[in-house]
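retry 2 of 3: previous attempt timed out while embedding glutathione. Reduced batch size to 1 and resubmitted. Inputs unchanged:
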Amino acid sequence: MSLVVLGGSVSPFVRKVRVALAEKGLEYRHEQVNPYAPPAGWRELSPLGKIPAFRDGDRALADSSVICAYLERRFPQPALYPSDPYDYARALWFEEYMDSGFVPVAGARVFFPLVLKPLFGGKAEADPNDVAAASKVVEEELPGFWDYLERELADHEFIVGDRFTIADIAIASPHANLRHAGVAPVRKRWPRLRAFLDRMHGRSSFKKVMEEETPVFGKRSIQIND
Ligand SMILES: N[C@@H](CCC(=O)N[C@@H](CS)C(=O)NCC(=O)O)C(=O)O
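retry 2 succeeded.
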């Protein structure tokens, strides 16, 4: 197979690329790579050492946004980027907002201590101090992101325009990580965002990757409290 995604399933950025591939109906091979214990020669594929990297035959790329942009040009249908110039820029903005704003908070300070750290340490449960610190982030830092997304979504089905785009993938992907940690925007306060996330995670593209991930995280997931 000529298309290869390299990077661990736990990464929201790897999931972004896998969902984009699924939405475009493309077959690919997936190789699990841990960026903290990478295979020899990893930096030749990914010069910053991060996941995901991508191969298309003998071409190599790194960075989820770059890879998705490449996929769009290489396999234009179905389009994952709006054609209207302003909508296009707004879609890129939401991708940036999530990748550079939301993920460093939700990934590093909630998902990592609640799920990955105990998993890597062979522990059944997260450290109580980590749970307390992560809960504080959920209570004090994530609401600002969720308020903004709730406002921007308003009564629309998708975050930009009237079609599914890369912006929807970028929003839903790190929320899949939070779901594995038992965290989601509470329905009562963020009803539109929560319904949006349920819709996105219910798409077959997301469902497929999330079902594959569940056995890895399943035992550690905290039950989501509405
Ligand atoms: N902007 C990059 C971010 C990728 C990223 O930060 N990946 C994390 C895993 S979720 C990583 O590889 N971290 C290892 C490191 O920073 O050395 C993208 O969109 O692909």
